[in-house]
Design brief:
Elements (H helix, E strand, L loop, with lengths): L5 E7 L8 H15 L2 E7 L14 H4 L10 H9 L2 E7 L7 H8 L9 E7 L6 H13 L3 E2 L4 E3 L2 H4 E2 L2 E2 L4 H25 L5
Parallel strand pairs: 1-2, 1-3, 3-4, 4-5, 4-6
Antiparallel strand pairs: 7-8
Pfam families: FMN_red
InterPro entries: Flavoprotein-like_sf, FMN_Rdtase-like_dom, NAD(P)H-dep_reductase
Protein name: NAD(P)H-dependent oxidoreductase
Length: 198
């Protein structure tokens, strides 16, 4: 691996009362810091102003002039600076939370030509339906989704004391982070070499 640390943004996507997302997000951040290839930043959407009513203009065309709420600035700045992103999402009714959709839709170029990986949790499916929908949406924004994600089925019995009970989980996390690091290297070099044509 190159010695350059990439800026990794971990987004905790659920804002639901009693949510489990911060537990998962904290563990993922711990794995990312131990990996050694990333400077880790965590943004919890529960602390971000995310109105569902959007301005008439597209964020793609408005660019820096897009009128976002002041309370969204920490998310916008973190997305802009990130070389790689991990989204931590639950599954609600076979999809992902409205909070995540709002966070995505308020931005565009901040996702472009950046790698995004997923850590999901839920019932029997472990959040995989949510991830499949997120992959479709983020592809539209020209992000590059990483194949090997982390999924935690039946998280309510699969975690204890803030950690997954599966002894293989840290190894799966390392695979995700290794792929994310490779894509971060490749895509950052591409963005620095030439503007993305999209």
């Amino acid at each position: 691996m190159e010695n350059t640390a990439h800026k990794l943004l971990i987004i905790i996507g659920s804002v639901r009362e009693g949510r489990f997302g911060p537990v998962v997000g904290s563990w993922v951040a711990e794995q990312a810091r131990a990996h050694g290839g990333f400077e880790v930043d965590v943004v919890d959407l529960a602390g971000i102003d995310l109105p569902l009513t959007l301005p008439a203009a597209s964020p793609k065309h408005a660019g820096a002039d897009y009128p976002r709420p002041a309370g969204m600035a920490p998310l916008t700045s973190a997305l802009h600076d990130a070389d790689a992103i991990v989204i931590v999402t639950p599954e609600y009714n076979h999809s992902y939370p409205a909070s995540l959709k709002a966070a995505i839709d308020w931005h565009f170029t901040q996702w472009t030509a950046k790698p995004v990986a997923f850590v999901s949790y839920g019932g029997a499916a472990g959040g995989r339906h949510a991830v499949l929908h997120l992959e479709n949406v983020l592809t539209e924004l020209h992000a590059v989704t990483v194949r090997d994600g982390l999924s935690f089925p039946n998280y309510f019995t699969a975690w204890q004391d803030g950690r997954p009970l599966d002894p293989g989980a840290p190894g799966y996390a390392k695979t995700l982070l290794d792929q994310l690091f490779w894509w971060a290297n490749t895509l950052r070099a591409g963005r620095e070499a030439a503007p993305y044509p999209g």
